[in-house]
Specification:
Helix content is about 60%, strand content about 10%. It has about 350 residues and is of the alpha+beta class. The protein has 2 domains: about 1-245, CorA soluble domain-like (Beta Polymerase, domain 2), CATH 3.30.460; about 280-340, no CATH class. The radius of gyration is 35 Å and the shape is rod-shaped.
Length: about 350
């Protein structure tokens, strides 16, 4: 277990013995506990010493619990998430607040929590002088870390979509799966969490120990959570757009291949006909085309004329051979520049 006590400016080490000695006269503090695992005996003992009953301790030491915010036994209890820049997985945080102290319990995310405490310390004035505002402010700072994570995902999706439109590659499917894996943990959790907040915060001023300013902070937090849900929907749409753009580009590429095969077939169809016709082993035909002049006319000049006639016919119907060839070379150069060897 690693525990700290934050007074609004600095964080100091907090022990189970200090938890047992803490009295109701002690100044407000934010006690943050990072447990090693759900069975961490020291963490459980510290929570019990801070006034949590067995049921609350079990809730605080659980993993993968659904997000919620409610009043229980005179405390504001919340299960929420924050984001660590080093990981795409949301970090679960259990929060318990009373006018005398605030507890947070988690299993990872030391760097993210340290950043949130620094942001809280950097606010104008001492936040802890207005203890009712503390939970709303801290929850908003946790949500801000998730917002930054979603911004990073949005930028990656925008870049990926641009590269797909420019030159679709098989490796981009792996990137799409990676971005989906980064987004889904948030998309699964937040819609139900937003509904829970709406139900609980119909009148937050009635929560134990909460005043008007604290209720306003909680209401603002609930609004930000709803905005996050809407943003997650937009990111889901962006992810689907990337997949659709990839399918479209691959479909267009396959269509171009079919067009190329069609053009080649049209050009060489007359030659194939001539080859088949003059390859027939008829005695009278052999007698008629034995001369050099006949061979030059029928074996050389006529195939060339047929090819030129085919190209001319294609050009008249909108198929520009020179433009097609230049586009083909440009695509080949793009494929080469996008290959891993370069």
């Amino acid at each position: 277990m690693k525990a700290t006590s934050f007074d609004g400016h600095t964080a100091t080490v907090f022990t189970a013995a200090q938890a047992a000695a803490r009295t109701t006269a002690a100044p407000f503090a934010w006690i943050d506990i990072r447990a090693d695992d759900p069975e961490d005996a020291e963490a459980r003992a510290t929570l019990a010493a801070l006034g949590m009953n067995e049921f609350m301790v079990n809730i605080a030491m659980r993993r993968q619990i659904a997000g919620m915010l409610r009043e229980y036994d005179g405390q504001l209890v919340c299960s929420t998430w924050m984001a660590d820049p080093a990981s795409d997985t949301p970090i679960e945080v259990h929060l318990s607040w009373t006018p005398r102290r605030m507890l947070t319990v988690r299993f990872s995310g030391d760097a993210a929590m340290s950043e949130i405490q620094q942001l809280a310390a950097g606010r104008e004035g001492n936040l802890f002088e207005r203890t009712a505002e503390v939970p709303g402010v801290v929850l908003k700072l946790m949500l801000a870390s998730i917002d930054r994570q979603l911004t990073a995902i949005e930028l990656r999706l925008t870049d990926l979509d641009g590269r797909i439109i420019e030159n679709a590659q098989q490796s981009q499917l792996t990137e799409l799966r990676s971005q989906r894996a980064s987004l889904m943990p948030f998309a699964r959790r937040f819609p139900a969490y937003a509904d829970t907040l709406n139900e609980t915060l119909v009148d937050p001023a009635t929560l134990p120990g909460m005043d008007t300013e604290g209720a306003a902070q909680l209401q603002a937090y609930a609004t930000h959570v709803r905005d996050t849900v809407a943003r997650l929907g937009d990111l889901g749409d962006a992810l689907r757009n990337c997949a659709q753009d990839y399918q479209t580009e691959i479909g267009n590429r396959q269509g171009n291949r079919i067009d190329q095969l069609t053009i080649v077939s049209i050009v060489f169809l007359p030659i194939s006909f001539l080859t088949g016709y003059f390859g027939m082993n008829f005695q009278w035909l052999d007698n008629e085309i034995m001369s050099l002049a006949t061979w030059l006319l029928l074996g050389v000049a006529l195939p060339i004329l047929m090819v030129l006639w085919s190209i001319r016919t294609l050009n008249r119907h909108g198929y520009d051979a020179a433009r097609w060839w230049n586009r083909r070379r440009a695509a080949a150069r793009a494929d080469k520049s996008a290959s891993p060897s370069n």
